[in-house]
Specification:
Elements (H helix, E strand, L loop, with lengths): L2 H27 L5 H25 L3 H4 L2 H25 L2 H12 L3 H43 L7 H9 L2 H14 L6 H11 L2 H12 L2 H5 L3 H24 L4 H11 L6 H8 L4 H29 L3
Helix pairs in contact: 1-6, 1-10, 1-15, 2-6, 2-8, 2-9, 2-10, 4-5, 4-6, 4-12, 5-6, 5-12, 5-15, 6-7, 6-10, 6-13, 12-13, 12-15, 14-15
Length: 315
Amino acid sequence: MNLLELFARTLDVTLPVFAMVFVGLGLKRLRWIDSAFVSTASALVFKATLPTLIFLSLIKADLSVALDVSLMLFFAAATLSQFLLSWAWAHYRVERKDRGIYVQGAFRGNCGVVGLALAAGMYGNYGLSAGSLLLGVVIVMYNALSVVILAFYQPGQSTDWRSLLKHVAKNPLILSVFVALPFTTLSIPLPSWLITSGDYFASLTLPLALICIGATLSVSSMRDSSKVALSASWMKMVVLPAISTAAAWLVGFSGAQLGLLFLFFASPSAAASFVMVKAIGGNVALAANIIAITTLMASITVTLGIFALRLLGWI
């Protein structure tokens, strides 16, 4: 396979995902969808269609393949390392009032939508099922570490662990993982009509979520991007994915395992980071700029990253 064919295969994975993001951006500019639609659709995805997608992908999965403890442990360790590395960098390079927002934007990825969509496009059912299990790990870590870093630098805030645990325990994505595990481990069958109906409903998830991401992008806000937003975006989309993926390869991961890790590492900043910053009265403009820049960067960095890993023969 020559370089042109290899690059074309890479685009087959990434273009469908990011095309939907740009469709959302276009629909919003045409005023075919508005903020009310985005708010309602995002809630539907988070509370219903995405949990359904995760549940179905897990009950159809072969846990002997999808449940990879070493992969989950490495991903957890890498996430913690990314958090600490971005915190160390922010400590010396970012003003105190913006450090928490910088760190959250630099380490917290949109694995639940963009990462999962890329994993499904690249690895099919394995990507969905193994990716769903990784989500169960990372959702807990993202929420806990984000609360810690934002509370540390925001005046008048404290780390409310009881509230955090309640929030995590009620997270629909985590609940869908736990609900699915007994069906998978005990091979409990579900009626075929229910599976088919669930597939119809779950198929709404990725296109609808990606369109909502595109519709929330603000080109005008990016024009006012600060050096802090650009630095956090560079850290999120280039530095941390490169270091983490290289570390994964060095410890022995390759093929689909390494590819899945890269896709999750290279996901743009999560929209949930904006919500958390707004809730504590932080610099919401900075948080929004990081999300917008990383989302647009992802179409290039993820494509080039997959191409490079395939060229090296690592995946």
